[in-house]
Every structure is written in C-alpha cells, then in structure tokens.
Amino acid sequence: MSLLGFLGINTCGCANAQKKNETDVYFTINNEQPKNYYLLTMSSNGCNFRILVNDIPVYGFWNSGAYSGSYPINHFIQKSGTQRLKVEVYPAYLHEDLGINSEEPLYIEIKKRLDGQTLDDYVAVLTNPIPKIKKGIPYYEYECTFEAEVPYDINLLDECVRLDTITNIEELALKKYNEIRELYESKKFSTFQKEFDTRNKRIWATNYIPVNKGEKDDNEDIERMKKSYKHVAPIQDYEIKFYGDKKLILLYSKIDCTYAFRLYDGGSKMWAIPFFLGMRKGSDKLEIVF
Q1: Tell me: the pLDDT tens digits for 50-86?
Q2: Which is nearest to 60 in space by CA: 243, 208, 214?
Q3: SS3 for the chain, per residue?
C-alpha cells in the first residue's frame, strides 16, 4: 500500500516489544537497544529539490514557490552507523530560466528523538550542511553523512542483485507495473495488498509499529482506495530511475515528476503510490522489495 499514513508514524510507539530479539526473514530487531525516530525537516527558497538517504529518494518538491515541511526517515535507514545523505537542487518550476535563484536555496536538518518522547524533544543530528552556492546555476548536488542508532538491521538489499546490467530491465519493470495495475483494475484487492507485504513489514519494523496496527492501517488504506479510486492511470510518459546502489527501480512520471503508479477517479483526483522494485538473488522476477 501507499502507507501515506506517514504522518502517524512519527507519533507511534511499539506495543509488542516484549522480546529481546525479534527476527523476520530480512530483518532483526533487538528490543533492548534505543528506539530512535529520525526526522528530516526542509525549507526551500527559489528551487526545486530531491533528497536521498542511502541512495533512496526520501522527498522531492516540484512546484513553483517555496516549501517547508518534514518527513520521517527511519524506513530509509537500514542499520545503525553512518548514513549517506544526498541533495539535488534544481531551478524552481516555471522559473528554470533564472537558474537556482538563491545562494541558500535549501535548509535541511535531521533530528532524532527517543520512543516515548514528544515532538518537542527532537534534537538535531545534522544542521544545514549545504554551503552557499552560486546564484543562477542550473543544478547543484551535495553529499554528506550522518550517524544513526537504531535497534534493527535490515538485510533485504544484500539479498538483491544490481539491475542496471540486465539488458531488458525496463521491459521487465513495465511488465511488473502493469501486473500490479491489472490486479487493482480487476478488483483483486487482497492479491494487490500482498504485493506490498515485504515493503510494509519493513516500514512497520523500522518505525516500531505493531503488526496488528500496521495491518489495520493498511486495510483502512485499501478501503479508502476502493471507495474513491476506481482506476489506475496507464503506465506511460515515465522515466526509469535506479536507486539503492542500482538494486532498486522506480518509474517516475515525466509529466509531474511524481510516481508513475497512480490511482485516479476518472477526474482530477489522483493518489500516487511510491514503491521500488528489486530482484532477489537466484530469481529472474521483479517484485516490490522497498
């Protein structure tokens, strides 16, 4: 599912951490270690941008004007230690001729708080690392690292192969997108849900969400989808992108720079669903892994 209930993620606690260690096929959790939440906050001026953590896109802004907001990032952190941050800065939409129209176009912070604390208890881990840039340039890229401590170890990507060397990878990706689209269009909603199981379990684990709550939220998402969105837009006008050190694929829409898989109501309403395809070692099939 979309799991667009991310606004609720950064206020959820873990209610089933009674065991010291919990394991799943692709992750291990040590419940005696601190359960930190990490939050990315952003404020832009005169630019569009994309922010990646560990080579996976976390958030992008593609519009005119300015942006200010925040986004939880635990589900992009796979284990404790050094995390990679990358920032891509572009000219503001409809003002491309001006280039990036500020020397300080993007302010970011990464903050953390311990499970059980409030939103006011976030402390800075990384504060405004981006140096001043030359005003008017068409593109700017910045990379740095930050440290994170989490109680889980996600080894899913270790079990996946690089996709950029597979000659027909775009054909395979488009085929998989259309298979998922057909499940929704034909109202096979339970099978559609199962396509997201691996992804959802990782999101729940990394945000300390009990499985029963995650499943409940997921079922509510499905009911909202069924009620408001009868169709999936055709998978077209897309651009293929490799992420996760070339182990993940995402199809972007060229029209609005958001995700190519989107539900729509036949009118103006649209629900874009982000997911990443990967291929496990020993398999020749793509699946939603992230």
Answers
A1: 999 999 999 999 888 899 999 999 999 999 999 999 9
A2: 243
A3: CCCCCHHHHCCCCCCCCCCCEEECCCEEEECCCCCEEEEEEEEECCCEEEEEECCEEEEEECCCCCEEEEEECHHHCCCCEEEEEEEEEECCCCCHHHCCCCCCCEEEEEEEEECCCCHHHCEEEEECCCCCCCCCCCCEEEEEEEEECCCEEECCHHHECCCCCCCCHHHHHHHHHHHHHHHHHCCCHHHHHHCCHHHHHHHHHHCCCCHHHHHHHHHHHHHHHHHHCCEECCCCCEEEEEECCCCEEEEEECCCCCECCEEECCCCCEEECCCCEECECCCCCCEECC
Instruction: Find out whether 106 and 49 touch, Cβ atoms under 8 Å.
Output: yes
From 287, 284, 263, 265, select the one nearest 273 (Cα to Cα).
Answer: 263
Contact status, residue 163 vs residue 217, Cβ threshold 8 Å: no
Phi and psi at residue 194, to the nearest 5°: -65, -25
pTM for the structure as a whole: 0.88
Q: Residues 176, 184, 196, 7: what is their CA dihedral angle, to the nearest 10 degrees? A: 130
* 146 DSSP β-pair partners: 83
Residues 6+ apart with CB under 8 A from 182: none
Residue 22: pLDDT band by 50, 70, 90 thresholds?
low
